[in-house]
Amino acid sequence: MIYTVTLNPAIDRLIQTNGLLMKKRTNRVKTIEYDLGGKGFHVSYTLSKLGMENIALGFIGSENQQQMEEILQEKKVTHQLIVEKYAFTRECIVLIDEESQGSTMVTGNGFQVSRDNHEKLISQLKKLLQQDDMLVLAGSLPPNYTLKQLEEIIDVGKVAGSFIACDLSGDALKLAVKMQVNFIKPNQFELEELLPPEKNSIKNRLLALNEKIPYVVASLGKEGSYVAHTGEIYRVIPPMIREVNDTGAGDVFVGSFLAQLAQKAKLETAIAYATVCSASKVTKRNCTDFDLMQAEQMLPMIKIKKLEGKSDAIS
Ligand code: ATP
Ligand code: MG
């Protein structure tokens, strides 16, 4: 089974404005859509859409629980969430204008998770996790949630011998590296926080990480990605598409990559599917949607090149 964990859940409110979005002006709403927020939920949605059974774990607030559960149901995300009493699941407002000049995100901080609920999550994971399972930790930590608490979660996965995939940032990502999880996918900013670029090329930084972590993906938005596995580095060039909203591209990348790994696909197949599914997502307005048929049609348009020697040169 694949378990995703969303510690800091969110409801995405996607607001599309008429015309161009401008400061110091009244921008009129054209459409409003509610969608799943929280990276773990996004990964669950991707997995389900690709036919991979999975269960979303984590926390939700009691005060708007019904709204969150309706969205989860509509998106066919199977879940076993722990309810935090008197708390509101935060909203992430995604602003996107008619001209689609990229999206702007304004996000709430989320609610504090009680000690009791953290302990509940730990016992739930201890009961559920088995050696053949995948544990996916994605997204930010709730306010006041400590690295020690995150360490406890990763530790349960380690003890069970599960495959642990982390899409985290900052100190949480540093901890995942220290604990030698199985998969990480820093984006450009996250990679720079993890290993500053001074002197070291991206290739050398990925190779250093790959000594501890079996699958390291550095994602670079429309520039594609680098993937390191067993000391080999692949440079991946995505298809050219018309960008509508790139928020959530990373989550679709992670979900489709892990869906392939869980099916024991070859690494290049996992890279290819992750690249085309995330590219398809970028052509959609909301933060989760992608189209598998459209994605598969883009398979011939991507480039995956194994880098040789010590040179960083790519073509
Ligand atoms: P998020 O946190 O919003 O989910 P991210 O910053 O973690 O995103 P990115 O590096 O932006 O992730 O994107 C992940 C992958 O999605 C890229 O490696 C690339 O394959 C694909 N992608 C993103 N933007 C584009 C684009 N404009 N065109 C084609 N592919 C894209
Ligand atoms: Mg990301």
How would you describe the overall organization of this protein?
- This protein has 315 residues and is α/β, with parallel strands linked by helices.
- Helices cover 35% and strands 25% of the residues.
- The protein is built from 10 helices and 14 strands.
- The protein is globular, with a radius of gyration of 19 Å.
- The chain starts with a strand and ends in a 9-residue tail after the last strand.
- Magnesium ion (MG) is lined by residues 167, 187, 250.
What is this structure's SSE topology?
Layout: E1 2-6, E2 10-17, E3 29-37, H1 39-49, E4 54-61, H2 65-74, E5 79-84, E6 90-97, E7 104-107, H3 115-128, E8 134-138, H4 147-160, E9 163-167, H5 170-178, E10 183-184, H6 188-194, H7 202-210, E11 215-219, E12 225-229, E13 232-237, H8 249-262, H9 267-282, H10 292-297, E14 303-306
Parallel strand pairs: 1-4, 1-8, 2-6, 4-5, 8-9, 9-10, 10-11
Antiparallel strand pairs: 2-3, 6-7, 11-12, 12-13, 13-14
Helix pairs in contact: 1-8, 3-4, 4-5, 8-9
